[in-house]
């Protein structure tokens, strides 16, 4: 089974370079690390926070519900080398007046767009977003990084990745098993962890991820791969236990969460995924 993990790409900070604007709209640039780009995209979700700025002049809004039009375009270059805006997704979304006043997070599936970018990556994945009230009665905004804005509301992309490392190198990293595997020796088993089931509502993303776990016996024949473990077992120094099945290699995941002061934090948490198991 291929390991699934999550990467979160934040919008790059704004600067004064010309490509930050395209036909009157601000360009949203996302950058992925070279390590992330080595994987295949299973799913990509663009998260956008929209909020009403103010009603247009001489307009009184009494409706409790609104319909907004959302359009996501990818900025690319045509055959002449000029920048072009290519439509990717468009939808109409119904929101309440309160949701527009306090702000609302919207999710847009951009899997195909991100997968194409991973196959032919450039410096950044650049997109433009149009958000309009269907009756043109108010101004709506998607936040962009600046010293004045709340960077916790910046657009970000959640990407579920399919680990591609098995295609680059062939190496023995322990056995992988499933619940139906009749294997008694030390093996890695799949385990999906759902934070919401634990009541961990302070975690924003991911809500669920593949953690995996190790289980099984460590017989003598299996210990030949790990001579130090075998020798310690034979010597049996005081206080040492017998060999046990444990993680040999672990990796990190990216997470978006609230700290104690309710600030939104993006960080990489090590040791969250079991990549391989062995006897130790």
Automatic annotation (TrEMBL):
Record GO terms (molecular function):
cytokine activity; growth factor activity
Question: Where is it mostly found?
Answer: secreted
* GO annotations of cellular component type: extracellular space
Taxonomic superkingdom: Eukaryota
* InterPro entries on file: Cystine-knot_cytokine, TGF-b_C, TGF-beta-rel, TGFb_CS
What are the subcellular locations of this protein?
Answer: Secreted
Record SMART domains: TGFB
Q: Which UniProt keywords apply?
A: Cleavage on pair of basic residues, Disulfide bond, Growth factor, Secreted, Signal
Q: Which residues form the TGF-beta family profile domain?
A: 168-280
Q: Which family does it belong to?
A: Belongs to the TGF-beta family.
Q: What is this protein called?
A: TGF-beta family profile domain-containing protein
Organism field: Euphydryas editha (Edith's checkerspot)
């Amino acid at each position: 089974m291929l390991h699934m993990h999550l990467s979160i790409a934040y919008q790059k900070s704004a600067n004064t370079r010309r490509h930050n604007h395209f036909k009157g709209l601000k360009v949203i640039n996302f950058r992925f690390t070279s390590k992330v780009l080595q994987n295949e995209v299973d799913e990509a979700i663009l998260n956008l926070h929209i909020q009403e700025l103010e009603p247009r002049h001489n307009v009184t809004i009494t409706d409790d519900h609104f319909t907004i039009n959302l359009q996501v375009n990818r900025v690319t270059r045509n055959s002449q080398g000029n920048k072009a805006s290519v439509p990717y997704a468009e939808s109409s979304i119904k929101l309440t007046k309160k949701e527009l006043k306090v702000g609302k997070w919207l999710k847009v599936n951009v899997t195909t767009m991100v997968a194409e970018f991973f196959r032919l990556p450039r410096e950044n994945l650049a997109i433009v977003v149009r958000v309009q009230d269907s009756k043109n009665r108010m101004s709506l905004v998607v936040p962009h990084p600046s010293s004045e804005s709340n960077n916790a509301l910046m657009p970000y992309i959640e990407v579920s990745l399919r680990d591609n490392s098995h295609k680059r190198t062939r190496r023995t990293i322990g056995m992988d098993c499933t619940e139906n595997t009749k294997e008694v020796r030390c093996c890695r088993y799949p385990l999906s962890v759902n934070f919401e089931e634990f009541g961990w509502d302070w975690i924003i993303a991911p809500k669920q991820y593949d953690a995996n776990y190790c289980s099984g016996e460590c017989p003598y024949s299996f210990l030949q791969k790990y001579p130090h473990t075998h020798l310690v077992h034979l010597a049996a120094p005081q206080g040492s236990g017998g060999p046990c099945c444990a993680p040999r290699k672990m990796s990190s995941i990216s997470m978006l969460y609230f700290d104690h002061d309710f600030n939104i934090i993006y960080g990489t948490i090590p040791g969250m995924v079991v990549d391989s198991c062995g006897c130790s």
